[in-house]
Amino acid sequence: MQRTAWKYYPRQQDHNTEQNREKSPACVQLQLMMSSSFNIFRVGISVVIMCIFYKSAVDSLSELSPQKYFSTLQPGKASLAYFCQADSPRTSIFLEELNEAITPLQDYGISVAKVNCVKEETSRYCGKEEDLMKAYLFRGNILLREFPTDVLFDVNAIVAHVLFALLFNEVKYITTLEDLQNIENALKGKANIAFSYVRAIGTPEHRAVMEAAFVYGTTYQFVLTTETALLESIGNEDIENAHLYFFHCKQVLDLTLQCRRTLMEQPLTTLNIHQFIKTMEAPLLTEVTEDPQQVSTVHLQLGLPLVFIVSQQATYEADRRTAEWVAWRLLGKAGVLLLLRDSLEVDIPQHSNVIFRRAEEGVPVEFLVLDDIDSLISHVESNVHIEEIQEDEDEDTKSPNMGQAVSMAFLQSYIDLAIKLKGTSTMLLTRVNCADWSDLCTKQNVTEFPVVKMYKEGKNPVSYVGMLGTEDLLKFIQLSRISCPVNITSVQEAEEYLSGELYKDLISYSSVSVLGLFSPNMTTAKEDFTEAGNYLKGYAITGIYSEEDVLILSDKYAATLPALLLSRHKEGKIESIPLANSHAQDIIQIITNALLETFPEITVENLPIYLRLQKPLLILFSDGSINPQYKKAILMLVKEKHLDSLTPCWLNLKNTPVGRGILQSYFDTMPPLPLLVVVNLHSGGQVFAFPSDQAITEQNLLLWLKKLEAGLENHITILPAQEWKPPLPAYDFLSMMDAAASQHPTRKDPECTKEMDVQENDKKQHEDKSAIIKEPIETLRIKHWNRSNWFKEGEKSFRHDNKEL
């Protein structure tokens, strides 16, 4: 019998306290059944949660005897120790620097201690005089590296050397151009490279690179050199300063081509490198049709300006090529956007071809007339004030406090989940402290927190990317219990599957069951469907039937093979969709759309799912359950295709109290309910209200919508353009909500079987190839909307809506 488990992997972030206190345990492992954590990978399914927790720490060196020090070492946890004779005056300067390194090293889960040796001490670390001038780095009780104290000359050198030793596999040190070319060729089409030159190991710049590698080391390949000849061989003769290049290798599919390289022009500090990498992750070019003063991108958040290349339909292709060339020239210095003049409601001077917007708030945009690219680049570079980001100690102390609050909030969801699953014999929930098990977290590619993973023997770990609420986690776990897709072996079993009887305990988590029908010889189509099912594991119920008698089902449900059968259990109906020439991504999109309800109740959690449809919302606000007649009228309009360009939905103020605030932002006073409104969030922000003196009937609704289409109705308000920002960069909950709706972790599991919780035969342990956590890339594509064409489908979509509901 297989079991499922959750683990908790917090990374340690220590805080200074007014009084020295003993360190309390960072985490208490939660388990629903008695099982050793070392046996988790030998059991069935494990789901792992990784979070940040903090424990109090002293702000001075712990002084221990050798025996006491070695008794405190914990498996998997890194520790730096300096062995010395008590009261030795020769080490006072080094001890001052080592004391300064305590806090930054503890930020990475590394403890620091001074070990006092006595003459009669028999430990080999206290045996010789020359040994007493070294520091030792341990992981558990295993010695990783020894450092002569003269190379640990200050706090930067200490942090740099220790992280360099611990990140040996993430950071490749090279000495020749051939080494660099080999790495570049190996990563083309796979990953990007962060290549750094520092004058020496242990410098502040080396520390900054190592700290960046600690955060981004599993996302990008970090490469380091101190060889001036290597720097000169790539065309940089400034050997007196440290440099960082970003090699754009992931997009290079032709192995004969060289990866594009972008040089970071700011000094190498930890925060400057972070800003630089964020600009490398941002879209190269963004198309917009909005007022330039209202557009917001990651560049503005990082203090960089925006450059709008003004285009029109007649010269669109040429303007886009120009904009892409400019974007490459200004990469890391400014954001570049293509602005379509034809679709813009804001007036632009006729001869202006470039708009320049500074990052400072309140500064008006500049309308420019520039004749060539060089003059544009020169104008931007001469007006951009690149400020070196200073590391503010106050901010550094505030952020961990906020991250403690986020982790504690998530822990409560995790505890609630454990309560709901109590007594489930096939489920094991655990949590792991990454401060105490840093080696385990490193092997599992855990670089950000919180992280949720599910493990099942013989299969690749699956990273959960949805919302971190109890119900969302529960749904993911329950739907992950079945195969992906389920292999149906008879017509009778297929009918039970479609009726919901086969997995009736899962219907509450997914009201739609998907069955793929294929002839036995449709090998490629079956492979595409199986890939789609694997991709949607934990988010949908999928099955496949490809027996010789498949025509019985295809004839009964009027399906042309290959086909999908969508069984909607709430409505009690089954519909068929042909799959001819549909690839895996097409099938994923079909199933994802099928999971959406026709007339859903909008909540805070599911709102992003429906916003992604890029349609105006037709919302019925109700103080409780809606009148069945209203629902019938709206569903009839849906059936007759009158609402294809809208997203019809309803909001229950009792279930979602924030709806009252929404209505008060639309009206001066709280209007009587029920109330029907149309809200266009995607461009313009207009809000229209259905006349309160009319009954909500099919005929009245249709007439009102036709008036809207003809531009005969006045809006009641226009929503301001405001960006939704996360409280901290590492906790982008809005992006998580989007990910739950649109993206699932890329994964390819071994062959699945249909039985629930059956022991797998494959005993091979698979490493997680998809556990690299990437912060979402901001995109912004805004489609134009006006009264004459707002019912038409837009050709472009954007990732985040910049209007308040």
Automatic annotation (TrEMBL):
SUPFAM superfamilies xref list: Thioredoxin-like
* Annotated ranges, domain Thioredoxin: 417-478
> Region Disordered: what ranges?
1-21, 742-771
Q: Which domain of life is it from?
A: Eukaryota
Domain TXNDC16 N-terminal, chain residue ranges per copy: 60-163
Boundaries of each TXNDC16 third thioredoxin-like domain copy? 284-374
Q: Which residues form the TXNDC16 second thioredoxin-like domain?
A: 164-283
Give the compositionally biased regions (Basic and acidic residues).
12-21, 746-771
Name the Gene3D superfamilies on file.
Glutaredoxin
Protein name per UniProt: Thioredoxin domain-containing protein 16 isoform X5
Q: Species name for this entry? A: Vulpes vulpes (Red fox)
Point out the gene that encodes the protein: TXNDC16
